[in-house]
């Protein structure tokens, strides 16, 4: 397999607070290949956004990267100077946030912003950059781009504004796009359009996309692979189809059961996982999910589970430890809906 565009190894991020050092990201590893969409999902506070911020070098004090490596196209970027990292962000990594106005200056016409960004990365003349900007606006589905290019951000609807942000992110032909909740602020009907646009552009431009969202529906629609985060760690990662249809980690099983389906009989209840994710200041020893896990046994409150390759999934759960003769028993002696991924 060719070298991944993004490679993250054993990433650790801490926040130094009066209550002590809080481990927000504690040993996260994943790759994203060219043209691939990795969905990063998990409940609020799981560490999705901090992971994205760490990749783009935007962890500000009191936060700090406490360990691990981030490589872009094989080159380490976690140890670059702030200035060098700013150049990487501008050129090699594009960013799309929930609020398009984070990326757009309300005082300038969208065309001026696109042209300026294009000219930062190319030798195009004003006329050439304007032509390229119109092409990009057309590519992201802005109608009448030769006219709309002279509009101000407030003259665009939320969905159209997010399309402009995507065009802006594409100006530099980045290797990686980090999209953090890109559709959360949009109407449901517009969300699907933006998501399919991102997916199509990622494929066409060969861009690797890290898509951060709490919305499993968006992940199921868009991602090639999915990482399920819990308490600053990846509980499970694998191809989206496998993880959505046959999740292995008990937390992922609960989360997948919580995807609302369009057709739902009155008997269908959303699966709720009892309890809540621990605060960073009170992460329990061993597996952070063990207090909520129906399978947990004494080992789970003692030993931190390392990720285990199980078929196409990588899962951080002792249940799948083929070297633990007691693991299987703990799988079998719990209730039925959690049994289909039994370790063999
Ligand atoms: N500046 C900060 N100081 C202290 N803790 C922080 C800081 N920024 C983030 N955190 C903590 O890091 C953890 C991970 O936060 P993060 O924003 O990555 O979660 P998330 O999964 O993206 O959640 P959400 O879906 O709500 O955005 C949380 O417990 C959060 O409180």
TrEMBL record:
<dbReference type="GO" id="GO:0005886">
    <property type="term" value="C:plasma membrane"/>
</dbReference>
<dbReference type="InterPro" id="IPR003439">
    <property type="entry name" value="ABC_transporter-like_ATP-bd"/>
</dbReference>
<keyword id="KW-0472">Membrane</keyword>
<feature type="domain" description="ABC transporter">
    <location>
        <begin position="8"/>
        <end position="256"/>
    </location>
</feature>
<dbReference type="GO" id="GO:0055085">
    <property type="term" value="P:transmembrane transport"/>
</dbReference>
<dbReference type="InterPro" id="IPR003593">
    <property type="entry name" value="AAA+_ATPase"/>
</dbReference>
<dbReference type="GO" id="GO:0005524">
    <property type="term" value="F:ATP binding"/>
</dbReference>
<keyword id="KW-0547">Nucleotide-binding</keyword>
<dbReference type="InterPro" id="IPR050388">
    <property type="entry name" value="ABC_Ni/Peptide_Import"/>
</dbReference>
<dbReference type="InterPro" id="IPR027417">
    <property type="entry name" value="P-loop_NTPase"/>
</dbReference>
<dbReference type="Pfam" id="PF00005">
    <property type="entry name" value="ABC_tran"/>
</dbReference>
<dbReference type="GO" id="GO:0016887">
    <property type="term" value="F:ATP hydrolysis activity"/>
</dbReference>
<keyword id="KW-0813">Transport</keyword>
<dbReference type="Pfam" id="PF08352">
    <property type="entry name" value="oligo_HPY"/>
</dbReference>
<keyword id="KW-1003">Cell membrane</keyword>
<comment type="similarity">
    <text>Belongs to the ABC transporter superfamily.</text>
</comment>
<dbReference type="InterPro" id="IPR017871">
    <property type="entry name" value="ABC_transporter-like_CS"/>
</dbReference>
<dbReference type="InterPro" id="IPR013563">
    <property type="entry name" value="Oligopep_ABC_C"/>
</dbReference>
<protein>
    <submittedName>
        <fullName>ABC transporter ATP-binding protein</fullName>
    </submittedName>
</protein>
<dbReference type="GO" id="GO:0015833">
    <property type="term" value="P:peptide transport"/>
</dbReference>
<keyword id="KW-0067">ATP-binding</keyword>
